[in-house]
Write a structure and sequence with these properties.
- By secondary structure, the chain is mainly β.
- The strands form 11 sheets. A 12-stranded antiparallel β-sheet has the order 13-14-15-18-11-10-9-8-28-27-26-25, with helices on one face.
- It is elongated and about 100 Å long.
- Mean pLDDT is 92; it is low at 1-28 and 89-95.
Length: 787
């Protein structure tokens, strides 16, 4: 049964990930994309990635040539013509969704080494050959978009470089504006299947500012350059061609030309192009902001919830039909100072939403940015939009105030990306000091290959530093940082995860997913205790781990969750949000939890006993049409807003949704506090209870169970009293005592014990006669002493 569910989930995820057509101009079955696309990109007919953090730029007037930049290594990894990218077969392939693959015909490429030399070295200095280069070697700063032109900004050592790709008449172009440099600089141009003889007749120098060479064996490549000053020269590696740029006291401008040469006629045409090429232009002119591209807006009408309930769900209707055929799978949002929302989509867009008022009659949607790498988190800081993708946190700048992003700044890209689809970067929040936080998923299957998989990650306020603050996460699709810097994160049932859960995060905490521990743990295997880092492949091999299953070593302990939830209540967890508004009913200062899989919202009641936190959750009496996983309180109206999508196991009926949960000022009949003691449970409600029904023990029932922590996928539910039995313990409620103020009831329960899951069910009346029929799911780690 589980395998069939997994296959269904994989089909859905594959459908979510792929893009059947990426049209520059747009077609009926594909989105209108901008001039660049971000993602992990594979080589043609290969699983080998040409760039883990790739940015593919469409170049040329016909929009059928492409150059892929690798922003980790700051190199051009490949240029090709013809078809764009192949995004997979969503109908016939039941497999892990692969990254997109080059579909056209490659014309040139480079090895996965630094794109620029440090000294005379182009050897990869990175640990495991992963992540960005050291910042003192080369560092990606971002890109400018001006019309169809994309201009990259990066540094080589301390020297700033602007670079813009192009294509015309069958020739790829790299135009660079390089700030003054006291030292010569060397960049990699392309691989060759035979080392060039730089002294041969194939090297031509029409004048001291330009040259070209025809090189290669089976596949000949023509490379040329034209510069604004003399001194540049080709140099050779074992199997590649490089360009050395002299030290220069003024900005150095150079245009590099690259083409695949199939005949003598092609070679002559290339020679003519180099000789007639105009001097390269200064790229600074393209860093000021360009003309708006996404000028067509979409107006939708929201739907207001109706009824007599205390909370109603309003729908901020998404632009499913839009001029750009863009998908609306929402991954995160926040509010700008003027009340507009900025919301990102999994497929790479950011939209601005105006008209979020009481009536929602005129919702105006404006595409603000596109081309981002699977963004699943967004935060507004000082009225500037920060977007979390798999590759980086991007800070978006509207340079000319036309409601479109012109500069896509790399705020921080220290995180390592691999080609495993399951390691999304998830959610984005800040603490009171301005530091950023997000979670990163573990790979599926759980074979860890990078130092950031399954971690909670912190990025400094200025973006200069990233650190892992906790580990052991599996699929942490949502987190939050509270008003007092409290950090929580959810996780989903799976390997090493008995059920869905909510974690309270402490620095250096380990939250159960053994392969993503990312540090040494004390482990036991077959009765032998040893210390090892389960995330280190060498240590896994040394200790002969048998795979991530019930034969795996067991950690002696891990940080217990704040609260578990059973699968019938939450099969796939979402994010959390602290209530920071007094306009949203009686829950100000409390934590809320979203179930992505069940499309529901929970109140979280936290009870601390001698420094140990117990917690209980209760579901609000409404559902959403899509999975919900991000939430913010709107400072304008004080109401709760949520967004989400449908992409893996979920009861959702819509691909994406944006919602408002509005308090109507009607009485709320829900518990607001939970306390577990040695003799029973105390529940405190938001309104007075009917004395007779609340004091009738027959109106309550309780049961409990435990989960088994193991390397297996999920856990059965075991008796607390007899751990060998797969069953729930039915608990006897001997007495229900109502407090003098009529708002609290104490349930006297025999044989109280700590338990992973305690379920309390009741059907009682409020003092105002409304029936209150609810279920509470609690996790009790420690019982309070009776006073």
């Amino acid at each position: 049964m589980r395998e069939s569910l997994l296959k269904v989930a994989l089909c859905i995820v594959t459908a979510l990930l792929v893009q059947p057509v990426h049209s520059q101009s747009g077609t009926s079955d594909g989105p209108v994309r901008g001039p660049f696309f971000s993602g992990t990109v594979r080589a043609p007919k290969s699983n080998e990635a040409i760039a883990m953090k790739g940015i593919v730029v469409t170049v040329g007037s016909e929009k059928n040539a492409y150059i892929c930049y690798d922003t980790d290594l700051m190199r051009v990894s490949m240029g090709w013509t013809g078809a764009f990218l192949e995004f997979g077969d969503t109908l016939n392939k039941i497999a892990w969704p692969p990254p997109p693959q080059v579909k056209g015909e490659p014309k040139f490429s480079t090895r996965p080494n630094p794109g620029w030399a440090k000294g005379d070295s182009l050897a990869d200095p990175r640990e495991r050959n992963q992540g960005p280069l050291p910042k003192d070697w080369a560092h990606y700063k971002g890109l400018y978009q001006s019309g169809d032109r994309v201009t990259f900004k990066y540094t080589v050592g301390s020297t700033e470089v602007l670079e813009s790709p192009g294509y015309q008449n069958g020739i790829f172009e790299r135009t660079l504006t390089i700030a003054p440099s006291r030292s010569p600089m060397t960049l990699a141009i392309c691989n060759l299947d035979a080392a060039p003889d730089l002294g041969s007749a194939s090297l031509q120098k029409p004048d001291d500012k330009r040259a070209f060479i025809i090189a290669g064996n089976q596949q000949k490549v023509a490379v040329g350059f034209v510069a604004n000053t003399s001194g540049s020269r080709f140099t050779r590696g074992a199997d590649d061609l490089r360009l050395e740029i002299p030290a220069h006291a003024k900005p150095f401008l150079v245009k590099i030309l690259i083409a695949s040469v199939a005949s003598e006629e092609n070679a002559k045409q290339f020679a003519t192009a180099v000789q007639s090429a105009t001097a390269p232009e200064d790229l600074a002119q393209f860093t000021k902001g360009g003309p708006a591209r996404w000028t067509e807006t979409v107006t939708t009408k929201g739907t207001l919830g109706s009824g007599d309930e205390a909370y109603l769900v309003d729908t901020i209707t998404e632009p499913v039909q839009n001029p750009y055929n863009a998908r609306t799978f929402f991954g995160g949002f926040d509010f700008l100072n003027d009340g507009r929302a900025a919301i990102c989509t999994f497929h790479g867009d950011v939209w601005l939403v105006d008209g979020i008022d009481a009536d929602l009659d005129q919702l105006k949607w404006k595409r603000f940015a596109t081309g981002l790498f699977q963004p699943l988190g967004l935060k507004v800081v000082n009225n500037t939009i920060y977007v979390l993708g798999r590759d980086q946190i991007t800070r978006l700048h509207d340079l000319n105030k036309d409601d479109e992003a012109d500069f896509f700044e790399n705020f921080n890209n220290d995180t390592v990306v691999t080609s495993n689809y399951h390691e999304y970067c998830l959610d984005l929040h800040t603490d009171r000091q301005g530091n950023f936080y997000f979670a990163k998923g573990a790979p599926w299957e759980p074979e860890v290959t990078s130092p950031h998989q399954g971690c909670m990650i912190k990025v400094s306020k200025d973006g200069s530093k990233m650190e892992v603050i906790a580990s052991g996460l599996r699929a942490p699709n949502g987190m939050t940082v509270g008003p007092d810097n409290q950090i929580t994160v959810s996780d989903n049932q799976g390997h090493w995860m008995p059920s869905s859960k909510l974690n309270w995060v402490e620095k250096n905490g380990f939250y159960g997913m053994l392969p993503t521990a990312q540090r040494d743990l004390k482990l036991t295997l077959n009765g032998n205790t040893f210390t090892a880092n389960p995330s280190d492949p060498k240590q896994r091999a040394e200790h002969k781990f048998k795979g991530w299953d019930n034969n795996s070593p067991m950690p002696e302990n891990y940080d217990q969750p704040l609260c578990w939830l059973p699968m019938n209540m939450d099969n796939s967890s979402g994010g959390q949000v602290w209530v920071t508004s007094k306009k949203w009913g009686p829950f100000n200062g409390q934590l809320l939890f979203m179930s992505y899989g069940k499309c529901t919202l929970f109140e979280v009641m936290i009870d601390e006993v001698d420094g140990v936190r117990n917690a209980a959750m209760i579901q609000f009496p409404f559902k959403f049409n899509s999975g919900v996983m991000r939430a913010r309180f709107n400072p304008k109206d004080g109401q709760l807003y949520l967004c989400g999508l449908k992409g893996w196991q979920s009861s959702a009926t819509r691909d994406g949704g944006f919602y408002r949960v509005r308090h109507t000022d009607k009485p709320v009949h829900m518990p607001s506090a939970f306390k577990a003691t040695e003799t029973g449970i105390q529940l405190t409600f938001t309104s007075k209870l009917d004395a007779a029904s609340a004091a009738d023990a027959a109106n309550y029932s309780a049961e409990r169970w435990n989960y088994k922590y193991s390397g297996g996928y999920g856990s059965p539910e075991f008796s607390v009293s007899d751990p060998t039995q797969r069953k729930h313990d039915k608990l006897e409620i001997t007495k229900a005592v109502l407090s003098k103020d009529g708002k609290s009831v104490f349930l006297e329960i025999q044989d109280m014990k700590p338990s992973d899951q305690l379920k309390i069910k009741y059907a009682i009346d409020a003092a105002s006669s409304e029936m209150i029929s609810q279920e509470i799911y609690a996790t009790v780690h420690k019982l309070a002493r009776n006073k």
